[in-house]
Structures are given as structure tokens and as C-alpha cells.
Amino acid sequence: MYTSREDIGYDFGDNSKDGSKTTQPNPNIDRGWAWMIVLSSFLVHILIMGSQMALGVLNIEWLEEFNQSRGLTAWVSSLSMGITLIVGPFIGLFINMCGCRKTAIIGGILNALGWILSAYASNVHYLFITFGVTAGVGSGMVYLPAVVMVGQYFQKRRALAQGLSTTGTGFGAFLMTALLKYLCVEFGWRNAMFIQGAIALNLCVCGALMRPLSSKEVVNETCIVRNNSEVNHAKALSHSTETVKSNGVLNGEQEKKEEATNEEVLDSVQRIESGGKSRSGKHMYGLCILKRVSQLTVTVRKGFRIWYSSYFGAASLFTNRVFVAFIIWALFAYSSFVIPFIHLPEIVKQYNLSRQNNIFPLTSIIAIVHILGKVILGIISDLPCISTWNVFLMANFTLVACILILPLMQTYIGLAVICALIGFSSGYFSLMPVVTEDLVGTKHLANAYGIIICANGISALLGPPFAGWIYDITQKYDFSFYICGLLYMVGVIFLLVQPCIQKKQPREKSAEEAQV
User: Fold this and answer.
1) At what angle do helices 168-187 and 189-200 cross, to 10 degrees?
2) Counting CB atoms within 10 angstroms of each CB, which of 75, 263, 363, 415 has the fewest?
3) Would you state the torsion angle of the CA atoms of residues 146, 150, 152, 155, taken in this order, to the nearest 10 degrees?
4) At a CB cut-off of 8 Å and minimum separation 6, what does 467 contact?
């Protein structure tokens, strides 16, 4: 039930015959510097996602400081988490123009600036801008490159690498929670945010470690087919992607013409520069500035063209029907993971299980098993005989079942078992970049995964308030889990139905041709 993007042919005009050429394998693919990329991504998840998981500590301080409603104050954390993911498509534009390394470094500076400015907040609305927007955008500019770089450096062990790097979220939740509690007690919340801003500058170091692969190296390495089981199913989806590939060829010809024009402009500037060596230094300085501006203009135009064609052009990612189904799934998926974290404490109080929960919180069970789930599912997905897509779907079905069953459990043991299953099955988050890359390829991973995490951000931003609204109407948390679970099931069904529809289309076409 799974296809890799190499099998689909979603290469936007890349010649498949190039994969048959003997090329020198890059020594950093699946080894060498690739593991430094995993370390960098791991630290990014600790500093960004882990810090966001620990914002409950600061939320209490903000409530006491500003005396605002819980709903209004909670929007500070929601904005930061939501914007980090929602800005994904726009961060893809930065990556196309500047590359992952520069984008991550700029994002690290912006994130640290958001933390530091928030230390001087005079009201909650000030935090909306400094922490929600500024720090949120900075987090998004680091988070997406961290995921994309792991996908570029790994092919055979891609799922394991993504699993190891994303475990930083779980570790960060524990570390940052303890750190922020200590800093708030010892120095107060304002100084704690200032110190956290200084710590966030380490994101720039993580970005500096993201050494880019050359375009030729990426193309050569992505010609490898992951496993034989994926090849067989590829024939079912080739019908829907032939149009995308042909459109990609047309766009490629147009890009070549524009690149030729850009090169002519740069050549003319260089000729003027070489002919004016005898002129005064002031004129030479002006020519150097003109040359730099011309180069920057070419880079920006090229990056914007790739970004625009991926979303709105003839070779748009939205012409891939499986990818569209993947987006619909993402709109419902993330909230089903976030909602238990928010509402479990209230459910525990309703069932008079606070004493057991204080000894070992249910949310801690989810976080710990979530780390194990990411690593184990990554190892399983990398096995030659296992399809990543099937592992991804099985984990989703398990999570849906747990969300629907959780309200029926009224004992601590029962809730603990369900929470452990939720934590393990939600480890499929580490497979999301792998599935996305297999659908669209390494070249378009930044834009495609930006769309996916944007959909997740919308889900994370609207899901918890929606669940609270359902509780206000029904005075029960049960319906919140049931409705979110059913919506999640709809998204999973989209992932199942779309490949089946595409599998039938070639057969119907062949039958019509036989009648003719």
C-alpha cells in the first residue's frame, strides 16, 4: 500500500535514466557527517519543541503577574506552538533562496530575540507579539531545516535517523520543564526568559552544523529505491503522476531560459567590472555593489520560482492526489495527540484518581513511551521487508482506537495502559518526514513538509479550543474524545481510499482502450 517517490516518478522532469549511471557515492550519506546532522536536529527539538512543551510553567507565572483570564493567557502558548508549524510553507521559500543553514541561523537569532524581549513584557498582548509571533516564527525557521537536512543526509536509515532526532522533543520536555521551574524560583520569570533567550542562541550553532550537500550529490543519492515491495505498488499510482512529471519538464525548460537570461545579466556586470579596473576606486565599489545586488536578485528569483511552482504552478504538489490526502489527514491528526495532554488532568480529577496520578502522572507515561515509540517504529520501518507506509497506517489506526477507548477507562491502570499505547503509536511522527520525502522527493521536501506541518499547526491551534467548547456544551470530556477520534478516523480513511482509487484508474483506462 505504499509507494516511494522514485517509483511514482514525481521528479518534476528528472531523467530516470540518470539513476543507471555509475556515480561515486557520497561518503556522508547514511554515515559520517550525517550523524552530526542527527545531533543538530536532536538539539533543535530539545530547544524548540521541548521548550514549548514546558510553557505550562511560565503560563502559571503569567496568570499571577497580569491577572488575565486563563483563556486569554493560554493564547500566548498556543500562538507560539501554532505559528511554529503554520509558517512552514513560507519557511520553504527561505530555504529555497538561502538554504537550510542560513535559514536556521537567522531563525535562532529571531527565536532568542523573542525570548529576551518577552522578559520586558508589561501585559499579555505584548507577549502575543514578542513570544507568540517573534519567537514562533524563529522556531519555525529552525525546525523545518532540521527535519529537511536529516532527510537529505539519509536514505537507507532515514526512518531511524528521523526517529532519533525527534526524540529530542521528549527529552526536552523533561529537561526544559525542570530548568524553567528552577530559573523561575531562583531568579523570577523575567530573568528566566532572559536566560532562556541566551540558551536559545545555541540554535545558531545547530544551524551552523547543517552543512549542505551539493545538488548533484542529492540527486545521485535519491535515485536509490528503498525496497522491492514498494516497486510493485508504484504501478498503481503512476497514472496520477504522469501529468505532474510532464508539467515538470515544461517548467524545467522555462527555468533554463530564465537562468540563461540571468547569466547574461551577471556576465554583463562582470564585463563592465573588468573593463573598469583602471577607473577610480569609488566606481569599482559601486560596480561591486551592483554585482552583489544582481547575484542576490538571481538567487531570490530562482528560489521564489521553485517555491511558487511547487504550490501554484503547473507542477504543483497539489496535483499529487496521495499528497493531498496526506494534507487532509494532517488537519485532524495532531489535535488528537495534543488533547489528551490538556484534558487528562481534569479527567483524573473527575474519577478521583489524583493520588495515583501525582505519584506517576499519565502525561509522563505518554511522553516516556512516545520516545521509545519513535525509535522502535523507525527501526521497524527501515527493515527491508517492511513498508514504511504500512507501519505509518497501523500506528494511526492504533492511536484512533486509543482516543475512542480512553473515555471508557475509569481506573488508573486502564488509563495508564491506554496512555502507553497513545505514546507508542504517536511515535509515527518520526515517520512523517520519511513518508513526505518518498511522495515528493528530496528536492521538494522543504515545501511539501512545510505544508504538512502547517496543517498540523492549524490542528494544534484549533483542536484544544474546540474540545473545550464541546465540554462547555455537554459538560463531559467524553464527547471531545469521541468527536476528535472520529474526525481523525476520517483523515486516516482518506489515506486508505485515495491509493485504491488511483489503483483502479489505469484498469478502467485499459478497458476503454480495449473496447475501442
Assistant:
1) 140
2) 263
3) -160
4) 335, 339, 342, 343, 477, 480, 484
Residue 279 grid coordinates: 577607473
Indicate whether 192 pLDDT > 50: yes
Lowest mean pLDDT segment, chosen from 25-29, 66-70, 84-88: 25-29
| C-alpha distances in Å from residue 81, one per residue of 128, 333, 453, 469 | 12, 15, 11, 20
For 137, the grid coordinates are 516564527
CA distance 16 to 6: 9
**The three three-digit cell numbers of residue 403, written as one number:** 482516543
Give the pLDDT of residue 233: 43
Question: What cell does 381 get?
Answer: 520501518
CB 107 within 8 A of CB 465: no
Q: Tell me the three cell numbers of residue 55.
A: 510553557
The answer to whether the beta carbons of residues 394 and 194 sit under 8 Å apart is: no
Quick: pLDDT tens for 414-443.
989 998 998 898 888 888 888 888 888 777
For residue 191, the SS3 value is helix
Q: What is the pLDDT of residue 431?
A: 86
Of residues 172 and 508, the one with the higher pLDDT is 172
Sorted by where each starts, the structural domains of the chain and their CATH numbers stand as: 28-212 (1.20.1250.20), 314-506 (1.20.1250.20)
- Contact present, 62 and 111 (Cβ < 8 Å): no
From residue 57, give the alpha-carbon distance in Å to each of 48, 85, 188, 342, 446.
Answer: 15, 22, 12, 14, 33
